[in-house]
């Protein structure tokens, strides 16, 4: 067994041995709070660090969990376990409602909205007679588990840490899964994820509710640890501190939440002791120091402590490559192929206006099964906009697009992807900190079905093997098998474009839209790409490509559509286009 496997086991053994060792009560209490805080900030890692949705309101969900169990156990003498379940149910419903109301907001509106509902939930707790107003509710019973009363700190310690570590395990599982890859796309790659068939809004809701549930569990444990609840630990200040923990620890990594919670709790307590003694007067001076620390971390270590810690420890714990265990996985199902020469795509007088600018002006053309069509024209001719209209990225101003006999104008890109149209982007869209293989596997999203719960519980492994087998197959096909374990962000532009093509192929498309696929490729890579596209054509796939490399386009396409100033100039076979004086004039910018 290597050090990488032994060290976590040793750490775990030590963690669970601590309460029976002669460790001072103070440290057990500290660790209890660290576990509780880590639960909340692990949710924030998912929501904010990975999903890019900033929330200042998590403390309010902690309060929901705490107050629900407090009311049920004291007013109705119910078991804390009933309190937990009801607390989770109430949190889920409220989080769902808040998510549906606020998650379509963008920019600074979402954080502002989280502040607003955090304040109002806290205000509710502090002003309802039923909840004991500012005094809160006292006299909560201890939790009983396996016949043991978790009355003191050392006993509840086990429950806190089992739950915290299970949550971390579940979140790590989730991030390494089909829904996890979709979630990792939420922060900056939503357009791409939608084009791969992902409902990004749905996953925003999922992570919002999951983070709220983790906070609620933390509140439940907190209430039964303290045996009393009052509104102050669930206010906006605490909401900000949870975010602080996630940022300090490493907002993009689950274990960063634990580091952040530990660092925060220990520093805060030490500062509370030291600063008043140093300054000779009492006050919450630690807030000032913690504020300064946060600003410094955001400036000098925006990814938090965890990435630095792992880099420093890499000598002893080298990162392990994913095990390639999918060789025998069953292939994914494929969609029925279109009949030879079937009319696949009909672009009928499509128009796009941006204010006064007509970017695409009543353009029409058709694509049949097994054809490679080039869309060319000088810069600003409207090619990419036409692409975006066909693939559903932009709404049509007028006209219609039909794909495989269905009108798709007005449908979102994920619906169009489901019908068998896939695309790449002019500016590569990927998840830079995921491997090439994982990025490509995102293309299999619509060909698979395991979702959040199965991923959390790691019940998705067989399907994952099939997805990775498909991703590897497409990477091999495009000549990138060697690079599958590299981080996508480390690739040069040419290979990144090839990676996008492999990802699009993973959707098993009938029509492939490639936006400047040859840009950034070397001569040999272009030739290889041309060979792959010819092979795909032979298999019955159709390709529409926007490309500036005329040699590549002329040698590959069956027909070419030329655009200029948003209008279709001419359509014909490559030889006709090459000889056309109108096309030459368009490119040279002369009158025609
Ligand atoms: N979102 C937008 N808002 C306003 N104008 C836009 C928008 N997108 C594109 N345009 C304008 O529409 C016109 C067509 O742009 P488009 O990107 O489709 O051209 P293109 O043929 O793909 O050019 P290139 O070869 O340089 O990529 C340009 O004048 C561009 O500035």
UniProtKB/TrEMBL annotation:
**Pfam families xref list:** ABC_tran, BPD_transp_2
List the InterPro entries hit by this protein, alphabetically. AAA+_ATPase, ABC_AA/LPS_Transport, ABC_transp_permease, ABC_transporter-like_ATP-bd, LivM-like, P-loop_NTPase
Species annotation:
Roseateles oligotrophus
Report the leader peptide range: none
The protein in question is named Branched-chain amino acid transport system permease protein
Entry GO terms, CC: plasma membrane
Keyword Heme annotated: no
Tell me which residues make up the ABC transporter domain: 345-590
Keywords recorded for this protein, A-Z: ATP-binding, Cell membrane, Membrane, Nucleotide-binding, Transmembrane, Transmembrane helix, Transport
């Amino acid at each position: 067994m290597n050090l990488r496997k032994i060290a976590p086991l040793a750490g775990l053994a030590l963690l669970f041995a601590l309460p029976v060792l002669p460790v001072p009560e103070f440290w057990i209490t500290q660790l209890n709070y660290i576990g509780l805080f880590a639960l909340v900030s692990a949710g924030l890692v998912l929501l904010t660090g990975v999903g890019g949705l900033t929330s200042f309101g998590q403390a309010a969900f902690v309060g929901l969990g705490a107050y629900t169990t407090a009311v049920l156990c004291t007013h109705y003498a119910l078991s804390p376990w009933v309190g937990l379940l009801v607390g989770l149910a109430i949190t889920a419903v409220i989080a769902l409602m808040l998510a549906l109301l606020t998650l379509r907001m963008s920019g600074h509106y979402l954080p502002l909205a989280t502040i607003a509902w955090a304040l109002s939930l806290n205000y509710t707790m502090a002003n309802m007679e039923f909840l004991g107003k500012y005094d809160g509710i006292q006299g909560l019973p201890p939790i009983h588990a396996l016949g043991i009363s978790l009355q003191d700190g050392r006993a509840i310690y086990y429950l806190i840490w089992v739950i915290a570590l299970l949550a971390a395990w579940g979140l790590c599982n989730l991030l390494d899964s089909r829904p996890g890859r979709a979630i990792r796309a939420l922060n900056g790659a939503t357009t791409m994820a939608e084009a791969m068939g992902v409902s990004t809004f749905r996953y925003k809701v999922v992570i919002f509710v999951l983070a709220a549930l983790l906070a609620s569990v933390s509140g439940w444990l907190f209430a039964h640890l303290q045996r009393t609840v009052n509104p102050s630990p669930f206010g906006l200040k605490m909401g900000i501190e949870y975010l602080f923990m996630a940022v300090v620890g490493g907002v993009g990594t689950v274990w960063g939440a634990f580091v952040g919670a530990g660092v925060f709790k220990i520093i805060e307590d030490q500062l509370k002791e030291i600063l008043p003694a140093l300054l000779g007067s009492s006050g919450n001076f630690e807030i000032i120091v913690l504020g300064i620390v946060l600003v410094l971390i955001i400036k000098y270590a925006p990814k938090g402590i965890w990435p630095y810690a792992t880099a420093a420890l890499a000598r002893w714990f080298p990162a392990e490559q994913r095990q390639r265990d999918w060789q025998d996985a069953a292939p994914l199902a494929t969609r029925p192929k279109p009949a030879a020469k079937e009319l696949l795509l009909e672009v009928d007088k499509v128009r796009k206006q941006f204010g006064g600018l007509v970017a695409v002006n009543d353009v029409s053309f058709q694509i049949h099964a097994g054809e490679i069509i080039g869309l060319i024209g000088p810069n600003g001719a409207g090619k990419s906009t036409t692409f975006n209209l066909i693939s559903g990225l932009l709404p049509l101003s007028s006209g219609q697009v039909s794909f495989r006999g269905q009108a798709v104008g007005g449908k979102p890109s994920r619906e169009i992807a489901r019908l068998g149209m896939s695309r790449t982007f002019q500016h590569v869209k990927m998840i830079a900190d995921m491997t090439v293989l994982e990025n490509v596997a995102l293309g299999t999203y619509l060909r698979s079905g395991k979702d959040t719960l199965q991923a959390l519980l790691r019940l998705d492994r067989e399907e994952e093997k099939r997805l990775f087998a498909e991703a590897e197959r497409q990477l091999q096909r495009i000549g990138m098998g060697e690079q599958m374990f590299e981080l996508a962000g480390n690739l040069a532009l040419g290979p990144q474009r090839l990676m996008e093509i492999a990802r699009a192929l993973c959707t098993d498309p009938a029509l492939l839209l490639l936006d400047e696929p040859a840009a950034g490729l070397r001569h040999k890579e272009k030739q290889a790409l041309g060979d792959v596209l010819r092979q795909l054509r032979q298999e019955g796939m159709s390709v529409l490509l926007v490309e500036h490399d005329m040699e590549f386009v002329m040698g590959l396409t069956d027909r070419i559509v030329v655009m200029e100033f948003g209008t279709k100039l001419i359509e014909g076979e490559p030889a006709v286009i090459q000889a056309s004086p109108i096309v030459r004039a368009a490119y040279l910018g002369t009158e025609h």
